[in-house]
Design a protein that fits this description.
4 helices; seven-stranded mixed β-sheet; alpha+beta; 155 residues; globular
């Protein structure tokens, strides 16, 4: 079931993200691994023009993603923390999450940006398939300096 994040989801969302980061060797500084708000997404996404969604199955969070603003770029949002457990990939869950996030983003923004890692090859193919265009460099310097792939999409 796809729904907006609730406060009770914080711990499971953090576990989901850390599990995925470990899988891709991204459990290090310069990635979401080091984000100080990783365990408080419900609170983080209570601001205007931002939202985080989760997919719950048998009371477990199996996927999630968010939309948030980018400081200094009022018409550009960021697709944030889009992760799905390995066993759910290829099931259409990521597509449903992305479509939900982009529909929300389109109401508030003109473009959507994201940062990821090149070794997440399926994710990179997924973003290209959904109309994101690769960029040569990040939109701006961020705490995710280990990310080496950047994409943008007009909404």
């Amino acid at each position: 079931m796809l729904r907006e994040i609730e406060q009770r989801d914080n711990q499971q969302v953090e576990k989901l993200i850390r599990t995925c980061l470990i899988e891709f060797g991204a459990n290090k500084s310069g990635t979401a691994w080091a984000d100080p708000n990783l365990g408080s997404f419900y609170e983080l996404y209570q601001t205007p023009k931002s939202k985080y969604w989760v997919v719950e199955h048998d009371r477990n969070i199996i996927a999630g993603c968010g939309i948030g603003p980018i400081e200094g770029f009022p018409q550009v949002c960021e697709l944030q923390k889009m992760y799905a457990l390995k066993e759910t990939r290829g099931s259409g869950i990521a597509n449903e999450l992305l479509q939900t996030a982009l529909a929300f983003a389109k109401i508030h923004y003109e473009k959507c940006y994201l940062e990821t890692l090149s070794n997440m090859t399926a994710a990179n193919r997924f973003y290209l398939k959904h109309g994101f265009e690769a960029m040569d460099k990040p939109l701006q310097e961020s705490e995710h300096y280990a990310c080496d792939m950047w994409y943008i999409k007009s909404l």
